[in-house]
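Q: How would the structure tokens look for this protein?
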Amino acid sequence: MLPWSLGWVLACANTDSQDSPRLPDEQVEEEVPCVDTFPVHVMPEMPTDYETPLPIREDALPELLSETGLYTDQGDIHQALIAFTPRWSLWSDGADKVRWVYIPECSPIDSSDADNWELPVGTRLWKEFSVDGQRVETRLMERLGPRPQDWAYASYLWDQDGTQARKVGIEGQNQALGTTHNIPSRAECQECHGPASKGGGRPSRSLGFTAIQLDHSDTETDLNALASRLSEPLESDPLTGPDTTVQALGVLHANCGSCHNPSRDGLPQSDLDLSLVWGHPLEQAGVFATAVDQPTQLFATPSVRHRILSGDPHGSAVLRRMETRGNSAQMPPIGTHQVDEEGTAAVRTWIESL
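A: Here is the predicted structure in token form.
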């Protein structure tokens, strides 16, 4: 005879068996498979001869911007895209910028590291540049595969009449449409986004689509709106503190922190950290430990011996380099020919307050 407890378990199991009668109106819901709006662009096949050049990742991206998924057939921004504005923007010589991202519907963003989101394969990011009201360039980044280096970078140059944009070669193009705006080469894209041969960039590759950059109200899409797309939703925790400090450190984060950060892609030549960290109070920012009243390492001039010298903007190498253009001392080293007057003023005021 079976023990009473085991007999009870078996009796319960029999009542729930597949042979149990089903009510006439009982329906079984069929699982609807998830389908992404845009398939991942595929690399061209490898040639079978030695004379044909090997393909590069950028060959997978369309020749026309209108074929990248940014627009519908009617010319509107595609409804699957997410518009966003970072809290602090990289200085681009005053150009106006608009940004969108496509996150595959079937794959969440791995947000376990709030400072380095792992964007899923198939992610696309666009950034449109306009100079004096004229659209000049739209950039596209797409993750083609699971490896950190599987990002493709392409720039599209608009026609003079603004009706179509065509992909530019990986060498880039200077003075686009007769303006002072330069379209970067692929190597220059990698210097900021990564992976660069000498270091620079962030593991996420996206510099403005991050937790700390989206945690503000002046954006089309904030962290709350993204909650369903994150593997671990993040509660709003905006960086607060004296406005002078917040603005200055935000400028440094956006313009310097993409290279000067402690991630695996940060510059290995220097321990300088000018990035901000999600969830950390302002006083714990890396700039205080690695820059304020710290001696310079790579920048040498008789009158400047500190990275940031409390109370002395003129004696601070970081600010001096931000105010420099046209030689190897300028920072950021690429992508700009004009000094960011508003940004440098914010940093100067903050240094004077230290």
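The CA atoms of residues 88 and 250 lie 6 Å apart.

The radius of gyration is 25 Å.

Upvote if useful.
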